[in-house]
Structures are given as C-alpha cells and as structure tokens.
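Deliverable D5.2: sample structural annotation.
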Amino acid sequence: MASSLICSETQSRVSSVLNRDVKQYGKKFMFDCNEETCWSSDQGDCQWVSLEFPQTVKVSEVTLQFQGGFSAKTCRLEGRLKDGDFLGLSQFYPEDNNCLQIFPIQEAPTVDKVKILFENSADFFGRIIVYSLDILGERTS
C-alpha cells in the first residue's frame, strides 16, 4: 500500500520564492496540511521543486493542489539514485484549477531524490502557486 514518502527528514528545495518572502510563501507551506498557506514561486521559466528522501523509495503517485491561474500546463517528474544523473520518470498534465489532483506514476525505478519541473505556467509571468504537494510510494531500504 502506498503511503506518503515525505517526512521530517526529507530535504526540499525550490527554484524561487515570490519576492524572497519565505516567511509568507516558503516551500514548507506545501507540506503543512493547511489550506490557507502555499508556496509561491517568483516569475520565470520552468519553476521546480526537488525532494531528497532519507532512504531509497519507489514513487507510485504525485498529488498536487495548485491555485487556479497559477498552475503548470505540463509537469515532468525526474529522479536519481545517489549522485547519478536525473532520469525522466513521468510527464503529466495538470488541469488549471484549485482541486487536489492525483497523478499515478507507472513503473518508476528506485530513487532517493526527485525533482518536479513545472513547465508552461498558466500565468503569463511564469509563476506557480502550490498549496499541497505529496509523493506517495514505498520505502525500499
């Protein structure tokens, strides 16, 4: 059974934060289970989120909740093991709305780091706003 792979030891990074205001729009707000808070990127092409897990994992699902008007039209999930190169795991196409969206990942290899690239933002300036992000799967070590 798949469960959340994100824990307190998971390290996260993002491409940018709106006006560098991490207290109001920082990456931690994607994982706080609060519907009132979010990560908001600054403007620019291809925003991203990376997650490094404390152990190797097998990803089976990505869940995302954007703010309508600030979603990505295309998302690319990449993963890597240790210090290897990132490999493409999946590509998915979110709808531009406020609903929680679930994207199954087929036959993903074992990884310890994933990166979600948000391509083709619905926003003219390239901003992305994410209220919730979760990676589901199983721990392998």
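Annotation notes: The beta strands are 3-4, 11-14, 39-40, 47-66, 72-80, 87-92, 100-104, 110-121, 129-139. The chain has a mean pLDDT of 95.
The annotation will be released with the project's public dataset once the embargo ends.
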